[in-house]
Amino acid sequence: MEYAQATKTVPEHNLSQELLEQFCFNLKSLRRISKAVWIDESELHVEGVNSVKQTLERLKFNIVEMKDETATLDGGDVLFTGKEFFVGLSSRTNQRGAQILADVFKDYAVSTVNVTGTLHLKTFCTMAGPDLIAIGSSVDAEKTLEQMLSLSDHSYSTLVLPDDEAANCVYLNSPEKGHILLHRTAKEFPESAKIFKSLVNYTLIPVSNTELAKVDGSLTCCSILLNKGA
Prior knowledge:
Blueprint: H1 15-18, E1 24-26, E2 31-34, H2 43-58, E3 62-65, E4 78-80, E5 84-89, H3 95-104, E6 109-114, E7 125-129, E8 132-135, H4 139-151, E9 157-160, E10 170-174, E11 178-183, H5 190-197, E12 202-206, H6 210-213
Parallel strand pairs: 2-3, 5-6, 8-9, 11-12
Antiparallel strand pairs: 1-2, 4-5, 7-8, 10-11
Keywords: Hydrolase
GO molecular function: amino acid binding; dimethylargininase activity
Family: Belongs to the DDAH family.
């Protein structure tokens, strides 16, 4: 997982909506499931998807679109660990959507887990480093993590955070700076910030997300991580 370059989409009138759109990628195969974000297909949403789609096409990514009208797959429910996929079954993602993801990424195991008490899987569970899962401390988060670990053939360490929302962070592996982690600020979640500071050899970048959080937006909603060299 190495991410070194930032690419911006064209600044359109619908960018604020686009910030809340999450897309799921296989960072090695460079393929994508598109139009699988919000269940509603408003004109504003479609324009936002098309803007990102055009950017990905310009970057020479192979795009795979989901055609099944019964399938729902929200990027906020798709967690790629670098070794396998976990798909959260929630109000915005169903079993059919997870099956389509598995059909596209045949080289990786795809396991489904039940998500309760929150909107998305990645609201309280993301990757904080190689084989390191950031997870919240709520009962719902613990149940989901237990499912994930029981379904996996791989070993993972966990970074347990007092606040579920703080477990939504963005990990990058930079050739120049090594491990980089974007996480919520100490002002928002002081106890969780202390846990992040315990990470060794990380460049920590606190990012305030107070306003986006009011409309269920998380840090992972605001970017798409690409590995162009894979």
